[in-house]
Amino acid sequence: MQKVAGRIPMPPTISAMVPNPDARLRLGRDIAAEMARLHTADPRGLHIPALGKVPDGKEVGRIENDRWRAVYDETARIRIPILDLAFAWLDARADHVSTRVALVHNDFRVGNLVIGEDSITGVLDWETAHFSDPVADIAWFAQRTSRGRSPQWCKLIAEDQFLDAYEAVAGWRPSSRALTWWNVQSLTKTAAGCLHRGISQR
Fold first, then answer.
1. How far apart are CA 29 and CA 157, in angstroms?
2. Rounded to whole angstroms, how far apart are CA atoms 171 and 167?
3. Which of 60, 85, 169, 177 sits in a 20 to 30 Å window from 20, CA-based?
4. How many whole angstroms separate alpha carbon 121 and alpha carbon 113?
5. pLDDT digits over 95-129, tens only?
6. What is the CA 52 to chain-centroid distance, rounded?
7. Nearest to 62 by CA among 127, 132, 148, 117
């Protein structure tokens, strides 16, 4: 780790902090490129034993869904039908993941990025990083919780522009099927995580 210069925008402040739309677009493209560079690293060559064994790419959907269902099952004192349905939907489509495996940051979004004028100078909060489908990071960046009513991901960049910039560096583009699966998974784990935090803080 090292100290880096820059500012840390939050979802409500990113538009004011970077008021120029062109600068926001450049920042969004830089984020896509940085995320792609992270995902192109061979997980088996990273030598991070603390993260455990690199999983089979065909199993990451099931692994992720089982992990967050366990959180939900341990936390929910009353079953929540929409979450039961969401976990069942994810289970039935667990093979919709990309089957790729990469080092996934797991919280790659505005709020965890240090920025300069219109580029990233640092990425924060790596404590939940793990080996999984890289599309998980892309879907998390696209979450509505980080963009509110804005159609732009993290209020910076349109979906196609982000994916174009990602593909230019990574050499591949996630399918709409994989992106949809991880979008649903992102919302589902957010709900389960909020339930867990609510119980633990009582």
1. 7
2. 5
3. 169
4. 8
5. 999 999 999 999 999 999 999 877 899 999 999 99
6. 20
7. 132
